[in-house]
Amino acid sequence: MGGGGEEDEHLPLFETKAMKGRLVYRVFSVTIFIGICLILAYRYKDELPCVDIFVCTADPKIEPPILAINTVLSVMAYNYPPEKLSVYLSDDGGSDLTFYALLKASVFSKQWIPFCKKFNIEPRSPAAYFSTTESKCASLDPVLSQESAAIKKLYKAMEDQIETATKLGHIPEDIQTKHTGFSEWASVTSQRDHQSILQIIIDGRDSNTVDADGCALPTLVYLSREKRPNHPHYFKAGAMNALVGILDFLYLQFQSARNNQLSVVQLRVSSKISNGQIILNVDCDMYSNNSDAVKDALCFFMDEQKGNEIAYVQFPQNFNNITKNDIYGSKIDVITKVELPGCDGHGGPLYIGTGCFHRRESLCGKKYETGYKFDMKKRIEGKVKESVNELEETSKVLANCSYEEGTQWGKEMGLKYGCPVEDVITGLSIQCRGWKSIFFCPERAAFLGIAPTTLAQMLVQHKRWAEGDFQILLSKYCPFIMGHGRISLGLQMGYSIYCLWAPNCLPTLCYLILPPLYLLKGIALFPKITSPWFIPYAFVIVAANAYYLAEFMWRGGTLKGWWNDQRAWMFKRTTSYLFAVIDTSFNLLGLSSSGFDVTAKVSEQDVSERYEKEIMEFGSSLSGMLTIIATLALLNLFCLVGGLKRITLNLVDSGFETMFLQVLVCGTAVAINLPVYQALFFRKDKGRLPISGL
Ligand SMILES: O=c1ccn([C@@H]2O[C@H](COP(=O)(O)OP(=O)(O)O[C@H]3O[C@H](CO)[C@@H](O)[C@H](O)[C@H]3O)[C@@H](O)[C@H]2O)c(=O)[nH]1
Ligand SMILES: [Mn+2]
């Protein structure tokens, strides 16, 4: 204690001071931090399995090469160690134009992949990225916009070259001399008659092949499997099987114990070249929209508790060209947001084609055994030591059509042959072998594709689906027969929603033909509005429609979208499903076999404009399907007018009371068919329905 100046000299009771040597410590801790990151990177990197990605294309006219390579580039740029990725372009069109486009893409990828990773951009399909608003916003990040402008220029130059060649229809000689691969086309007589063409465009094993930043690149392979006129090629299933294959010594032993022959022919192209434990299939029109999707899928496969029983992880099919009110009901949101997640609780969703990650073994026919464990890190040592040329030669043979003869490919192994929905039937067989599957819907869609833009395209696509699913129901693969005791009853019922699509045409046709005809004649088919029997009718009509409407709106649809969806269902039921039933019957009688009509992915300028404006495209030439649609629309209109006249003239006993439901059914049909009348009587554009053709 004291006073005055003495106080200042007092020392504080305690004092905290920074230690000396802070800089040294900081350097030390940074090195430890880097060390931990490297350890994690090492661990993480090594634990990730190899992934083989198959992109399918079938015709350079229907599926332009520029579309296919955009998909290829998007999957090459996944956030995944490139040395563990292999991308295969399966070209069923056997086209040198597609091959040329892929060569160009391989060069462009050296700039594109580092650009994507540096700025973490999405989506990684260049065409899709350059059409996003962010890519057009120059001001946000000056470095990004500068580099983006430079890379866009490169892309446009590549696009120009590819499109010029595509328009020309062949590859000019001066370009052909630049790559020996083109010489393969000297012996190609047609799309349906040629030898296997296989070119390893980027060899991931080669440490000299790097991108602009010096990082490794994914392996990139072009394959056009052999096709001969006297050999069935089994469409997409055949294309996939030429690639799939399996090389696993444990599995070979397991199989050879049962059938010695099998082990010899299990190797196919990708199992020879890269043998990734996981296989992803995407159609050429479905680019990757989420560069983390591979890692997302692996979270399921690699889960320590449940991962071993998962055979496939299916992502939903989303589309980037859906208009606000979805005129053709293509969004299938009720399927992907309600029905398939519903199946998830009963053993897993159906395999619906593109956007599906498979465990190689389960796709190749392995049965699930309780306690089965698979080490994703396991790599088959010493598998490929051959030089690129040797490897091309030895792998090519595996894509020959004679290679499959007398084997289990298309039956026990790989995707199943003979069904227009090779995906659904294959998934069902996998589930019946004891495996589970997963439906995964990340917030940012993993894949985006192209939905049909004309009525005819949509109806043809649905005919293929309905026919395939109906064939399954009537075959030994029927979910209630093959699935009995193997998959849950809930899942059997889940499958049957789709298997019963086709026969749905019969009640729909009845409702669209009988009530109007009887209305015209003045004969009542339903109870009077005053009768107690009217109540169940009213309840079912109101409740079923209200439920579907609520489900539709809950999943983000609009009211007009729901109305359009109802129309799309009506058209599908009266045409696609009817034709599916007829063709399935012919098929059962052995009078025909089902094919695979590839859905068109490009349309003319005026067709696209009408699609954007949500004007239905009937397409001026009158097919059987459009004739049915127009006839039913006219029948309902004619009968409604005739029937109403009869009622107003009091020619029917207690008119409205008796005929209320018939007028409602017929009136709804007329209201829903308004675009048909418009197309028949008022429209002048090329998308109208020519009344003269009826
Ligand atoms: O002989 C063929 C025929 C088709 N494809 C490819 O198969 C894919 C699907 O064909 P597409 O015409 O687009 O049919 P979609 O109806 O749009 O396809 C859905 O339905 C098919 C089953 O019908 C599934 O295989 C698809 O994955 C699924 O997206 C495309 O990449 C085609 O290139 C071939 O590789 N070879
Ligand atoms: Mn498609």
Descriptive report:
49% of the residues lie in helices and 7% in strands. It has 694 residues and is of the alpha/beta class. It folds into 2 domains: 50-317 and 352-451, Spore Coat Polysaccharide Biosynthesis Protein SpsA, Chain A (Alpha-Beta Complex); 495-693, no CATH class. The strands form 2 sheets. Strands 3-4-2-1-5-9-7-10 form an 8-stranded mixed sheet, sandwiched between helices. The protein has a 3-stranded mixed sheet with strand order 6-11-8. Strand 1 (51-57), helix 3 (65-76) and strand 2 (85-91) form a beta-alpha-beta unit. Helix 3 (65-76) packs parallel to helix 4 and helix 20 packs across helix 25. It is found in: Golgi apparatus membrane. One of its GO terms (cellular component) is Golgi membrane. One of its GO terms (biological process) is cellulose biosynthetic process.
Give me a quick take on this structure.
Keywords: Cell wall biogenesis/degradation, Glycosyltransferase, Golgi apparatus, Membrane, Transferase, Transmembrane, Transmembrane helix. InterPro entries: Cellulose_synth, Nucleotide-diphossugar_trans. By secondary structure, this protein is α/β, with parallel strands linked by helices.
